[in-house]
Amino acid sequence: MKKIIFTITVVLITMVTVAQDTTAVEGPWKSNGMVSLNFSQIGLTNWAQGGESSYAINTLSAFNINYAQDNTSWDNSMDFGYGIQKIGEKDPGKTDDHLELMSKYGYKTSNDWYISGLLSLKTQFTKGYKVSEGGDILISDFLSPGYILLAIGMEYKPNDSFFINFSPISGKITMVLNDSLSNAGSFGLEAGKNMRSEFGGSVIIGINREIMKNVTLNSTLDLFSNYIENPQNVDINWKVLVNMKINEFLSANISTHLRYDDDIPSIDADGTPRGPKVQFKEILGVGLSYKF
After folding, report:
1. Short-list 66, 159, 156, CA closest to 113
2. For residues 186 and 166, is the Cβ–Cβ distance under 8 A?
3. What pLDDT score does 35 carry?
4. What Cα–Cα distance (Å) separates residue 18 from each residue in 50, 72, 77, 103, 188?
5. I want to staple 237 with a disulfide (CB 3.0 to 4.6 A). Which of 158, 179, 183, 222 is the partner?
6. Model confidence, pTM
C-alpha cells in the first residue's frame, strides 16, 4: 500500500511539472488540469463512547492537452483517481480506483462541425475485492476489465469547453487479462476468453468549463449500443467532477460516477451473481489542490 501511495504521489508531481512546462509554450498547443489530494483521519484512545480510529486518502486528477490549428484539432485527456481507507484493525480497502485516457482527432468541415476519430481506454490500477461472508472475493484487476473504444463519426464542438461526438461506426473491446476472472466468465466474456468485441454506435458528450467564479465543472457522458446483441440495452458511463477552489492550494470537490452495463452482473454479499444494476459512486473531499 505504501508503494501505491508513493507511485501516485510521484505521478501527481510529474503531471504538475509537465503542465507548467506545457502552458508556457505559445502556439497551437493548450493544456489545463487539476490535481487534488484529500485526507481525513480519526484517532481514538480509550474513548468511552466507542468507535474506531480510521484514516482515508483520496486523489483525483483531470488533465487535458489539446492542439488546434487551421482545420485540424487533436484533443487528449487523462482522468485518474485512487482512494483508500483503513478502519480500526481491518486491512486498508479501496474507495476509488480508475484510469481513463481519451484521444480525439478532428478535421473541420463547416462551422463547429468536424469529421472525427476517437480512441479511449478505461481501466483501474489495482485489484478489487467484494467483501462477502465467506471471505473477500476478487472481482477486478488492472485491465480486468479494460475497455477500448474506437469510434468514427462527426463531432459538434462550438468552443473548447463543450463537444458532442456522434459515432455510428464504433468498436468496443472488453478485456479481462486476469486468468481467474476470465475463467469465471466475468464482465460478459465467455469463460476462458480474455477479450470480447462489440460493434455498434456511440455518443459522447463532454463539458469542461468554469460555471461560476472558482467553480469548475468537468463532465463526460458515454453512451454505447451494440447493434448485433440487444441494441436497446444502452451502456451508460457518466462522470461528473465539480472542483471548488478555496485559495491557491486548498479546494473542495465532489465527484460522482454512474454506470450501467447490461453485461456486468451485480454480486450479492455471499458472492452470488445477479442481474445487472445501476452502479453509482460519490466522493466528497476537501484538501490540497492545484489547478492550471
Report:
1. 156
2. no
3. 87
4. 47, 24, 14, 18, 38
5. 222
6. 0.85
What are the CA-CA distances from residue 207 to residues 45, 118, 275, 290 (Å)?
47, 16, 32, 20
pLDDT tens-digit series, residues 175-231:
999 999 999 988 989 999 999 999 999 999 999 899 999 899 999 999 999 999 999
Virtual torsion, Cα 216, 75, 81, 212, nearest 10 deg:
0
Distances (CA, A) of 111 to 29, 155, 159, 160, 226: 21, 11, 11, 14, 31
Kindly report the backbone phi and psi dihedral angles of residue 181, in degrees, each rounded to the nearest multiple of 5, phi listed first. Answer: -75, -40
Q: 239 falls in which pLDDT band (50, 70, 90)?
A: very high
Mean pLDDT of the chain: 87
Question: What does the CA dihedral 174, 179, 181, 184 come to, rounded to 10 degrees?
Answer: 110
Give the pLDDT of residue 26: 59
Q: DSSP of 93-159, one letter per residue? A: EEEEEEEEEEEEEEEEEETTEEEEEEEEEEE-SS-EEE--TTS-EEEEBTTBTEEEEEEEEEEEEEE
| C-alpha grid cell, residue 259 | 454506470
Residue 31, strand partner residues: 65
